[in-house]
């Protein structure tokens, strides 16, 4: 029945039954032993809620209609279960549905029903059940615990694990959304946290996304519609990848939140001699490994065909969070990212999408990511000695304030670095920032600008400092010398006037 038809049905029901008696009439239908009448009652509830949800939802909830709908989820009738899913999804839009704790008492029925429906060959039933589950997980107030025991939390995770692995893309996509909502701190069972179960769920989600991406890449559309089909496939893959990354980001957020809870660090019931795999530390290292082996390759393949700001915002926020989640690996991870051209990639994103006031959220995420990665790289240098605490503190302040202001292309950045006009303090600091970025990229073999052009730009920058009688921070001076040395001509000599400039500046 379409929405207009439901609206007409709702008017007829209201006209014949009256507002005050309507919940009672519908409750009697739901309580009937006749399955046909039960389905009819559910359809009437859908019709009324579609037509006027604000008017009737509170009355239905006060009449405990959700209780009977939850009971019907155990029915063998797919039509009755599907109708009950729909009714409950509509009722979930009313805050009273949660404050009266209907979800706390009904969540077991939802999980059991979802497990059973996934065994049936009914895609619409799968989707509707997952939609209800997502609504409950998303809207449940944090102060009202949804899963009151660890067994039910485990069963919910396993049902989602099965759903994200569905061969039907629409079902898997809805399951990924539910997974993102499920990975909330208040949804996880009281300690011990079931990290092994969470890991299995995330692995299933990431593997399904990788499988889907590879399937589309292997397809070669033929004929006149090939271009249109290709664009549709890229869009479809991008949406699924974005949802998957949002789910993975939720897991990263969960790991960070658990860092402040000693009781969530590890399973207190594990024998001291046992290998401690079900711990926050092991889960955190899994997140880093999974991002490295699955998330990064999937995103980089997708970037070969298209770039979407929202997807890159989520992706870079994940990379940024991993520096916090696995702090003992942050320097090594930063070096690997720099060697894989992530400084260049982030600067290109800022230049393409963040000029002016465009995409401020993406600009901030890019800046935060670059800030942490640069500090990590400077703290564990490859070619020069580490800066002092005082120098590192000065660089930290410089990067924090000036990175959000950099959104120029590489040629524009070189031109700005070469500018010999008088530089105000803020502009000079932006030059320092740009030079540091080029320096860190070059150290890790990411030479994305011409060496000859970079040589000229750094030379002009140093001469400009001399013209204004300025002495740059030692870190900046070291970076300048390194870049000049790495970019110099093959005869290994620097120009005479540049040599004089360096002497006077030092």
Care to describe what's here?
This protein has 506 residues and is mainly α. It has helices spanning 3-17, 22-31, 35-51, 53-62, 65-72, 78-91, 96-99, 102-117, 123-139, 150-164, 169-182, 195-218, 226-258, 280-303, 309-325, 330-339, 342-353, 360-379, 389-402, 410-418, 425-443, 451-467, 474-487, 496-505. Residues 1-19 have low confidence and may be disordered.
Overall structural class, as computed from helix and strand content, comes to mainly alpha
Helix content: over 70%
- Morphology call: elongated
Give a short account of the largest sheet: none
SSE pattern, N- to C-terminal: HHHHHHHHHHHHHHHHHHHHHHHH
Number of strands: 0
* Distance separating the two termini: 81 Å
- Determine the number of helices (DSSP H or I, runs of at least 4 residues): 24
Low-confidence stretches: 1-19
Rounded to the nearest angstrom, the radius of gyration is 29 Å
What is the average of the pLDDT values? 88
Strand content: under 5%
Multimeric organization:
single chain
Protein name: Meiotic double-stranded break formation protein 1
InterPro entries: ARM-like (IPR011989), ARM-type_fold (IPR016024), Immune_Signaling-Apoptosis_Reg (IPR052133)
